[in-house]
């Protein structure tokens, strides 16, 4: 049993590294769905969203904001909201999700943007969507400063190769030279 858990964990870690995991666009999800038998969502930690989930919303979210450096920015994402009910026999099939997406495109005029998924755990979590070759992966989102130059955040120090340093040989310490 323990060995099985170990190999399952190892497989997941290798799968995440082998597949170029990046945020998916709506068109990519639409291409994948007809090739799948089931729609399964998995968190980055390996936990699966319960199989009886519902997609309760598909829509486009527009956000206009100002960053801490004073730059006005805007972004658009396609939003999927996942929800669990007490109907444990419910299973969302790929063709049903595809029809929900197509209806959203027709009725709302949504475009081909990256997908953000909302899923309830302790609070409503927002995740980027990726695919590992078998399952949709809910990737943890992080925050970042968009105006680092305006915030005074120091840039990362340049790494130097010690061999490339110009060392004055006259001041160099030698074995037995009593300089250390």
Tell me what you see in this structure:
- The structure is a single chain.
- Strands 1-6-5-4-3-2 form a six-stranded mixed beta sheet, covered by helices on one side.
- It is elongated and about 80 Å long.
- The chain has 180 residues and is an alpha/beta fold.
- About 3% of the residues have low confidence.
- Helix 3 links the parallel strand 3 and strand 4.
- It has a domain of 119 residues.
- The chain has four helices and six strands; from the N terminus they run H-H-E-E-E-H-E-E-E-H.
- Pfam families: DUF6428.
- InterPro entries: DUF6428.
Structural class: alpha/beta
User: Which consecutive residue ranges, at least 5 long each, have pLDDT under 50?
Assistant: 14-19
What is the ordering of alpha helices and beta strands? HHEEEHEEEH
Percent of residues in beta strands:
25-35%
Radius of gyration: 24 Å
Helix content: 10-25%
Pfam families: DUF6428
InterPro entries: DUF6428
């Amino acid at each position: 049993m323990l060995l099985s858990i170990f190999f399952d964990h190892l497989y997941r870690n290798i799968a995440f590294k082998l597949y170029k995991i990046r945020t998916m666009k709506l068109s990519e999800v639409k291409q994948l769905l007809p090739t799948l038998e089931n729609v399964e969502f998995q968190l980055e930690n390996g936990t699966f969203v319960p199989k009886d989930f519902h997609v309760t919303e598909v829509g486009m979210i527009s956000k206009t904001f100002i960053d801490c450096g004073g730059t006005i920015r805007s972004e658009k994402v396609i939003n999927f909201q996942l929800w669990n009910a007490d109907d444990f026999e419910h299973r969302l099939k790929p063709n049903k999700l595809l029809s929900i997406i197509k209806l959203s495109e027709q009725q709302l005029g949504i475009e081909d943007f990256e997908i953000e998924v909302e899923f309830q755990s302790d609070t409503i979590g927002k995740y980027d969507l990726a695919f590992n070759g078998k399952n949709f992966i809910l990737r943890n989102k992080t925050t970042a400063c968009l105006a680092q130059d305006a915030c005074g955040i120091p840039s990362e120090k340049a790494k130097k190769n010690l061999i490339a340093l110009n060392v004055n040989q006259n001041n160099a310490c030698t074995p037995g030279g009593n300089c250390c």
